[in-house]
Design a protein that fits this description.
The chain has about 260 residues and is α/β, with parallel strands linked by helices. The protein contains 12 helices and 5 strands. The longest helix is centred in the middle third of the chain and has 16 residues. The two termini are about 25 Å apart. The model has no long low-confidence stretch (mean pLDDT about 90).
Length: about 260
């Protein structure tokens, strides 16, 4: 098991996405860029571990309804910045609607995920939170943790954007993204997840369909980057024009996070 993974009692998929070499011959600092699933079930021991990480900002990428249904737990006297957003339109989360209405097959799961990734970068609420996250990286020297519900899609895209900005190679970026499949042992958990889906929706899904929907594949992230490049010309232009990461902000982030 990779040392990037942090073992928590009740926070899934917690890991360090720093400590990679960059194309500039430097290295992203470890213990500064952290990512995970939600913290709603965090145990008291988990909260103590979070406290010891000296977190300067928590970026919660979930929709308002998700945060309301599963409110985060944080250490007592938490002093970090909390970055969250979204429009509370009362609508059901897209992935829940999919699970309730679509054919639960590996093929439909992959189509849904690729379509989700093609639109994810352009959601106004996401762009707002992404922009404030990059501002936090430019402004302070403490650890930053990003998370959504499962810590794989919204979180995975934002982590990949960060790797691009810092000059991490595409191969390392993809490898880090795919680490979710190891961190949560989807193959081992698929039967239990399928049973829970049946209880929740009354519909049956094969283990392969569960893995396709709840895991990650390189094609998902590549779909997001291809759409970004198609609409903005390059990932750098998207960072600049959609998220406000101009040259000065980019340089500050690189200096703060590179050794």
């Amino acid at each position: 098991m990779t040392t990037r993974l942090h073992a928590f009692e009740a926070i899934d998929n917690f890991r360090d996405y720093g400590d990679y070499a960059t194309t500039a011959g430097r290295r992203v600092q470890p213990a500064r860029l952290l990512r995970s699933a939600h913290h709603a079930r965090a145990s008291d021991a988990d909260l103590e571990r979070l406290r010891l990480l000296d977190i300067g900002a928590v970026v919660d990428l979930r929709r308002p309804g998700e945060r309301r249904d599963q409110p985060s737990r944080r250490p007592d006297n938490f002093t970090g910045l909390v970055i969250e957003g979204g429009v509370d339109d009362g609508a059901e989360a897209p992935h829940i609607a999919f699970l309730k209405t679509a054919d639960l097959t590996p093929e439909s799961g992959r189509r849904f995920m690729e379509n989700t990734y093609r639109t994810l970068p352009f959601d106004a609420s996401h762009q707002d939170v992404f922009s404030r996250y990059f501002q936090a990286l430019a402004d302070q020297d403490r650890a930053v943790v990003i998370h959504c519900a499962a810590g794989k899609d919204r979180t995975g895209f934002l982590a990949a954007l960060t790797h691009h900005l810092l000059g991490v190679s595409r191969d390392d970026m993809i490898e880090d993204y795919l680490l979710t499949n190891t961190a949560v042992d989807l193959a081992g958990r698929a039967p239990g997840i399928a049973r829970k889906l049946h209880e929740m929706t009354g519909r049956l899904a094969s283990d392969d369909a569960v893995v396709a929907f709840l895991g990650v594949e390189a094609a998902y992230l590549e779909a997001a980057f291809a759409e970004v490049e198609a609409r903005h010309g390059s990932v750098d232009a998207y960072l600049r024009d959609a998220l406000g990461v101009d040259t000065a902000r980019r340089d500050r982030i690189v200096e703060r996070l590179s050794a």
